[in-house]
Structures are given as structure tokens and as C-alpha cells.
Amino acid sequence: MTAVVLVLTGVALVLAVLAWVPKSGATLEIVLSGVMLACLTATGILLLAGHGVQGWREAWWNILLMVSGGLAVAGGGPLTTSVLALVDRGNTRSQSTQQAGEVLRGGALIGALERGAIYGSIVAGWPEGIAIVLAIKGLARYPELRSPDQPASVTPTAVAERFIIGTFTSVLWAVTCAGLLVSR
């Protein structure tokens, strides 16, 4: 049963990554999300039926853990793009997202991985992981933040501001989702 749970979770993870890739139509995104949800539901049912769960209280805790983790990873993206659209005064969310893709490539996927790592660090009781995640992200993005190869309409200061605002929004969302579980 452990192998089946790992395979279903792996399939759900691959589908989650594919859902982030830009596509021509929303139908594929809906199908990917539906299959991902089915995999996670099947995983939850297998965990409930297995010997690893002792009673309904632990079962509900595991379900809450999975749901809040998914909310931390998936919910932070739309929130971050909405905040950046507010910062970009006058731009729509789609215009702001397009500008973000031109300025810092891969930001949506990096943000999802960042939120997942931060959420996992807090729930696991290792808050020091937040510092490690942010240090890795800052060091990896430093060359892009100082690059003169940005579009002419974007100053290095604007790139740094978007990076800071997006990171703070993303981190605060992941911390909030994890804090709901940790504070119980």
C-alpha cells in the first residue's frame, strides 16, 4: 500500500507542476486539476484504510494537513499576483503577471516550491528552514536582480521591489496556512 500511496502522490505532484505551465486552453488545466484531486483523494482514502492511521482524530488531522498544505502552495500564487497587480497601479492582474514573467522568469514555480518548503518547515517544527529557503532564493536570484539585461521599461529598483513584495506575500501566506495547524 505504501507504494500505491507514493505513486498517487507523485502523479498528483507532476500534475500540479504541469498545471503551472502556460497552456492554450483552460480545459486541459481543469482536467489536470481534476485528476490531481482524484489522486490526492485516493491517497487520503488509502491512508485512512491503512494501518498507519489510528482513529478518526488522526485521520482528520492528516486530511487537514494535506488540504492546508495544498492551500499554502496553490493559494499563494493568485494572492501574490493580486498584490503585485495592486503595486503595478493601473495594470490588470494578467498584465502584471505578464510583466512579472518578463522581469523574473520562473517566479510562479519558484514561489510554489518556496511556499511548500516553508509550510513543511513550520509544520515539521523546524522554523530555521525558512531562513534557508529565503537564503537560497535570494542568492539564486541575485544575478537577475542586478542584471542590466532587463526590459527598457523596467529599472533594477523595480525588479528588486517586485522580488521583495512577491517573496514577502508568498512567505506570509505559507506561514499563515502552517500557523493554522501549528496553533491548535
Describe the structure.
This protein is mostly helical. Helix content is 80%, strand content 0%. The protein is built from seven helices and no strands. α3 (56-87) runs antiparallel to α5 (107-123) and α3 (56-87) runs antiparallel to α7 (156-182). The longest helix has 32 residues, at 56-87. The mean pLDDT is 75.
Number of separate helices:
7
**Rough outline:** globular
Strand percentage lies at: under 5%
Look at the helices and sheets and give the structural class: mainly alpha
Low-confidence stretches: none
Strand count: 0
Whole-number mean pLDDT: 75
Main beta-sheet annotation:
none
Portion of residues in helices? Answer: over 70%
Q: Quote the distance from N terminus to C terminus.
A: 30 Å
Radius of gyration: 18 Å
Order of helices and strands: HHHHHHH
